[in-house]
Records
---
Amino acid sequence: MEKKTIVVGVTGGIACYKAAALCSKLTQRGYNVEVVLTKNATEFIGPHTFESLTHNRVMVDTFDRNFQSHVEHVALADKADLLLVAPATANIIAKAAHGIADDMLSTTILACDCPKLIAPAMNTRMYENPVTQDNLSALRRYGWEVIEPATGHLACGATGKGKMPEPEDLLEAVDHAVRYEKDLTGLRILVTAGPTRERLDPVRFISNHSTGKMGYAVARAAAYRGAQVTLISGPVSLKKPAYVETVDVESALDMFQAVQSQAEEHDIIIKTAAVADYRPAQVSGEKIKKEEGDLSLPLERTDDILGWLGQHRKPRQFLCGFSMETENLVENSRQKLSRKGIQMICANSLRQEGAGFGGETNVLTLITPSWEEALPLMSKEEAAHRVLDAILRERKPT
């Protein structure tokens, strides 16, 4: 990533402490972070805090003579790749919506022509006031992205909507806006992820060790790069990716039906889910009681989702599957590629250190009918982008 400059505007609210954590995360992520504090914000947190975290001089006063330029707000706006105001009070929202420029932050806002994000943080009644809502609607019309506040306990003692989102959520919004080239814009991508659960009775089910991390990384990466993404997810404990439409399912049949309903309208389908191959032939309506001796459970095959996709692939649609193997990785995966009628398969071995279920890394071998590429150990986020890169290379121009 080319190092990008993020201008963070911090206004006077108790959520200022979250802005410090956000600036730390942005700096660690590799961004150049420039902070503009309003004078009211300095009543909550001092400039030195942000200067220590970002290694840049913090701006507060429009007429600070210590800066090189007497139009520092314009100079700052010129180098900004993104402007984020967080926390944003009702006052700064009103100023930005109506072009009022009477301090360092508001003049910088007016001078910026880069993408702009704003994270409202205030008392619930102030946030829900029709005037504030009209001002936020105006900002959306002017091209701002408004990051919805969270609901919870507020500093005023009330409980309701108005909390500034967590720094991790704001970091995700920044990444989505500017971190990656939007080379997937205009494409609709369907991703499946996670395990399925096949019920035995109201208490028990058959499943596997998949956590969904690889599929969620693919969905998030595709959204970062501009795609319109739908994620069909089995039961996982992961946070839903922002900017992604998520469809929750439980069983293999649920996932098959969800894929069937969505497949035709997507340009690329990436099937990372670990779908059960078998399910109980009969599901008990009551808990199966323990008895003397062994118990046999007859199983039946589930629907072959990837095979169905290969048989019903529409023109120009690209299908990518995943293959988890314990032996003969490439040979078994190539057979699956041919048998399913798909264009690419991503294979990994449960036996290889750093690959497999649950971890933060993966070791993939990308296989197509004409080539294969063994990727080194890397994070699942990096692996997701490498998969998308390969799909883009393989997709033939119209």
Note: The mean pLDDT is 93.
---
Amino acid sequence: MNISGGRYHRVDDNWQVWDTKAFSLYSRSTEKIDKKGADMAIAAVCRFLSRMNVLNYNVYGGYESTVLLEEELVSLRSTASGLYIPHVKSFDSVERGQILADIIDPLTGVTVAQTEAPEDGIVFFAKDSPLVMENETLFKIVNKLHK
């Protein structure tokens, strides 16, 4: 903490400035209670901490974690507001040009926008709330690791 002119200024707010590694945790659902997804997230965190020798924990099953950089993810945003009807969910494989979601005008029932996959990949994140605002993130897609 740095004190200047009677004010307190934090100098350690941004850990990236100090070359510290940060990890993000993503789960299957963000808008509702998902017991299976929560159990998967807890197991994944324990597996990760065990492999990093932070936690002494017997790891059974699960998937080997893959480190992804934010710039490797393709974010797809809505181009309109309305009712969000997804056609895919997290962990689904998608192909370039595949329609991933429709956005419907709630007053007319007309499809006002569609979201399509810009490339082959795996859905890493999929919004699960039925209402969407323009420019909201709907999907994050990662390139397939093995084609």
Note: The helical segments are 35-51.
---
Amino acid sequence: MSSSFEKHQRRRLISSYFSVVLSIALVLFLLGLLGMLVLNAKKVSDHFKEQVVLTIYLKDSAKEVETNQLKTSLAMADYVKSTEYVSKEQAAEFMKAENGEDFMDFVGYNPLQNSIDVHLKADFVTSEQLEKIAIEAMNKNFVDEVSYDSDLVNLMNNNVQKISFWVLIISGIFTVIAVLLINSSIRLSVYSKRFTIKTMQMVGATKQFIRRPFVWKSVRLGIIGAVLALAGMAVVLYYLNRTFVELGLLNNPLLISLLFVLIFLLGIVITWVSTHFATQRFLNLKTDDLYY
């Protein structure tokens, strides 16, 4: 009978520990994913900004030396990420592939112009900078027109600001939720030992002596939960980096390492603090209050 009771108690204890570890791991995993989003938010927004193309259309009278000089000056400019020269023949082939028919069969000649597609660095993708660059290019007498989607640029910059604001708000909310959930799990775990705590106190054990094993047990559970969360984060990060290679999510290993260390320390600190206050609460309760 006693053996059966002990097995039952052991199963309950293991189940309690498992639920605490799982709660810690899931909460820290979600918090870590949010941290990765915050760290890479600018990188993602920069990636989309750098897809904006400023196209410089050249006059048919433009000389080859003038075109080469323009390409060289653009390549050396601090605001340019990359450039691509598109001849009128290449443009015609692109339109033919896109539309499925050769428009030159109808017009009899190629009305398109030679052009240079310019991809700017993310910090320069603003309406003011694009307008400035366009005016500078138009001052050259062999440039016919400069084209870019100003509405798209304005929309993108406004959305980036809004998204950044809400990401910070959600990060704060998730941090509070993480602390509350882990604290709740720890308190439930300590609650199941409230009679043991009071018994030890009644036989003369000090509060520090009673609290120490509970704190160390919770810290160990926090470490296990944090390790599981970090393993999940590593898998997700590896998969995202394989899927979205152009984002270069692993290009800054120092920041990623700091995030992983922070999540690990959070697992320890939150469990330590939660257990400290949970045990303190039951140590201060009267014996009659333990039944409610």
Note: The chain has a mean pLDDT of 77.
---
Amino acid sequence: MRANGTPVARGRPKRTTPAEVSRAALELFAANGFVETTVDDIASALGVGRRTLFRYFSSKNDTVWGDFDWVLDRLRGELAKSSPDEPLMGALGRAIVASNSYPSEELPQLRLRMTLITAVPALQAHSMLRYQAWREVVAEYAAQRLGLTPEHHVPQTIAHTAFGTSMAAFVTWVGDPDADLEASLREGYRLLATGFDVTGS
């Protein structure tokens, strides 16, 4: 209430989106460090309260990953496009490369995200849960193709091998500004499909 008795107009609380929260968090982590940046710092940068942030992400660690469910859904969608006649490893490699294709303007943010994920010790335990979810998508696909359960040794071996192949490409890309992520992924899965035949490089 103002001094003259008229009510003060109250607008709606400022809103944001998960993408904006993640982007702001990544920028602060890059500038100030992951450990040094607090949830309050992120909220302040966005002009919102802590409660608003927790509507989108349950923890500071989650902001680094962004919408990881979208990443998993994108991979499932690419795997679903494969033909039963397509060799399993060829189909898997194609789907993973396609699901990691990003517009050039999004690559700097992706590089920062992956730099944090692969280098910050405080994120490693949290990362294991995300890695497991990714491997489960691959194991489910391999199991369906082979007529096995996802828990069977063969689909699990394929999932863990695919994860290692993908991470090798990402780690190489993060460490080399001139590296091409899609090309590294494509070459990794070609090597995997050919039993690591380096003569085809």
Note: The chain has two domains: 18-63, 67-200.
